[in-house]
Amino acid sequence: MSLRIALLGLLSGVGPASGYDLAKKFEHSLNHVWQAGHTQIYPELVKMAADGLVSAESEGPRGRKLYTITPAGAQELHTWLVEHPPVATVRNEVALQAFLLPLLGKDDAIAAVERIRDGYQARLAVLECLTEPGFGKYARALGLRQVRSGIEWADETLADLKRD
Amino acid sequence: MSLRIALLGLLSGVGPASGYDLAKKFEHSLNHVWQAGHTQIYPELVKMAADGLVSAESEGPRGRKLYTITPAGAQELHTWLVEHPPVATVRNEVALQAFLLPLLGKDDAIAAVERIRDGYQARLAVLECLTEPGFGKYARALGLRQVRSGIEWADETLADLKRD
DNA sequence: CGGTACATGTAAAAGGTTACATGATTTC
DNA sequence: GAAATCATGTAACCTTTTACATGTACCG
Description:
The structure is a homodimer.
Chain A: H1 2-14, H2 19-27, H3 38-50, E1 54-59, E2 65-69, H4 71-83, H5 93-100, H6 106-129, H7 137-163
Antiparallel strand pairs in A: 1-2
Helix pairs in contact in A: 1-4, 2-3, 6-7
Chain B binds a DNA duplex through helix 3.
């Protein structure tokens, strides 16, 4: 479901696009929010067209197919955005590592948290460089807050681990 | 892979347990970190036993099977904890909603953010009640920080939306 | 004319969800 | 003896990843 919503959202926000374009968007602007490769996107667009949520326009230069969101697609997107309950289906590898940290000895634990911190730092750098005009700015703000709180957690945890 | 690690971690942390026990752990202590139902856990334990990572002990009261982590399982767990790179495979419905917020009108957007805020608030309440002795405390601290930063984002975003 | 970026797809496997199915023990 | 909880499983389906496969247009 969420993949459909992401695709409908992109089509609604940036206008008609090809599967290739949409895959690029996932790689760049959407990568801190949702992920999908072209092998997932192409078949999904075909299904969405069959369901009347998008229409496949004419073929361009290299067999390029332009997809446009339909009124039914816009309706589906709007309904989801307004009604979808905030399900907290968390599946977070970093949190799992944090959970299992007490199983490690002091030195291993410190090394593990330092690697987690480096990961957050790298994501912070990416988010800071991201200058999206309007579209996506709220997600960027949320991402920045989450990543910064991750770094704070790492620092707190490192201090805690080094104290003993 | 991560499901295996979570199961090995639980077996390592709390000692021998049945699939049923492990499913309960996922429901309670592990639910803000990783999720899995019994239909995923039971077959995985069988595979892990086949791979020599756990050993299935005798059958108890109601066909209950006790699984114990083996040295090979402990090795696999340790290696993952120490070496697994912090992959940031984000797939976050709330962030997706945040991303697509500019597609909504002012009133719809405000309502959407308020629902997101309520969701974070509910998770905060759950995390605050969680009093885990040692095991899981770092994950709880991380979760608290992430949820609190989510609430801060919601407040900031609501102020921004209401300003216009 | 060779390399890069554009552009699309399929198939197999792995991971995860939902629905169905069964039976034993305990508690009231 | 009825209900709740314990305890395990299978099957169908959906989602996601990885590997394979193909061909076109543009740029130097």
